[in-house]
């Protein structure tokens, strides 16, 4: 059994890591940290875990050595203490944005700050198995992924890989997101009367995840807008792209099938009938699947590419566990088989 610990285990991503790792067949959860909840049972913060584990939170200062450490900390905290964490475990999976980018100038541009541990950037493999599977096998350090970036990347990659994107035209992406993206810390904007029922333009321009989309797709003409909607979990990316050459629907089927067939957690959703004709985050809550689909306007060459996922799963903890599986030589899908709920 692999001994793993989670730093930041009282947060939403940390809670999802606990839910996945406590029932992973090859993992033993050694420690779960929280400064504010030290001494409490984990179910007192994550009530879904009641009766399933007698683990208690420990203060981060009492963190001990283990085989693999998950970091689920607010932005910047992992980078500040990376030497300490690397001294405690030979393998790290970080869920934050601290080690996702490779380029310091891009980091400064999007995060408006100098990186606290620049020499560590190149040691991390980008933590999305759909793009870095082979580098993750046996790797020591995996970065996190942005949830909105992942929805956007998985919507765009089938088209990018098939050479179907006209890069002279802007690629426009709208991502609709749920409230758990903001983490467990309450704020004025998360107060129920203000957040409930909202369709709020959160980042019409300037969303930081644009940097990850540029890095992963190689596209330089991507423009993202992010809107908060009435969901707790879930993100839906709708990308609009113009085709680089005349295409028919069968060309797109070929491109999307070629991409999805390599990926255990990517499903192609495009039906002529029924309610669920395109990807929808509602039915993915708790699941590690990313559903992708598309529609084509043949008269203009406009392709609308859609990806739905659970931001806490494929967009964070699910991808992190998938990375651990690859790093440690486990089956890639181990501990991640939950298919989601319907109806929900
Ligand atoms: N929420 C999402 O959908 C999502 C998706 C993708 C990636 N992420 C990334 O994942 C990370 C965690 O997000 P989250 O939503 O889970 O945040 P969160 O709910 O606010 O949780 C943060 C956790 O970090 C702990 N913490 C805070 N400062 C710390 C420090 N200096 N040292 C050790 N522990 C500390 C907190 O507990 P104590 O203060 O009690 O120790 C808490 O357990 C973020 O970097 C976020 O960007 C989040």
Strand order of the largest sheet: 8-9-7-10-13-12-11
Largest sheet report: 7 strands, mixed
Rg result: 20 Å
Number of individual domains: 2
**Helical region count?**
10
> If classified by CATH, what would the architecture of the largest domain be?
2-Layer Sandwich
Q: Which word captures the global form? A: globular
CATH homologous superfamily descriptor of the largest domain: Dihydrodipicolinate Reductase, domain 2
- Beta-sheet strand percentage? 15-25%
From the N-terminal CA to the C-terminal CA, the straight-line distance is 34 Å
CATH fold-level label of the largest domain: Dihydrodipicolinate Reductase, domain 2
Mean pLDDT: 97
Distinct small-molecule ligands in the complex? NADP nicotinamide-adenine-dinucleotide phosphate
Total E-strand runs? 13
Structure class:
alpha/beta
**Unreliable stretches covering 5 or more consecutive residues:** none
CATH class of the largest domain: Alpha Beta
Give the topology string: H per helix, E per strand: EHEEEHHEHHEHEHEHEEHEEEH
Q: Helix coverage percent of residues?
A: 25-40%
Brief summary of the model shown:
About 25% of the residues lie in helices and about 20% in strands. It is α/β, with parallel strands linked by helices.
Q: Which SSEs are present, and which pair or pack?
A:
Elements: E1 2-7, H1 12-21, E2 27-33, E3 57-58, E4 68-71, H2 77-80, H3 82-88, E5 91-94, H4 104-111, H5 129-136, E6 141-142, H6 147-161, E7 171-177, H7 192-195, E8 200-203, H8 210-217, E9 222-228, E10 235-242, H9 249-260, E11 266-268, E12 290-297, E13 302-309, H10 313-328
Parallel strand pairs: 1-2, 1-4, 2-3, 4-5, 5-6, 7-9, 11-12
Antiparallel strand pairs: 7-10, 8-9, 10-13, 12-13
The chain binds NADP nicotinamide-adenine-dinucleotide phosphate.
The site of NADP nicotinamide-adenine-dinucleotide phosphate has 32 residues, from helix 1 and helix 10.
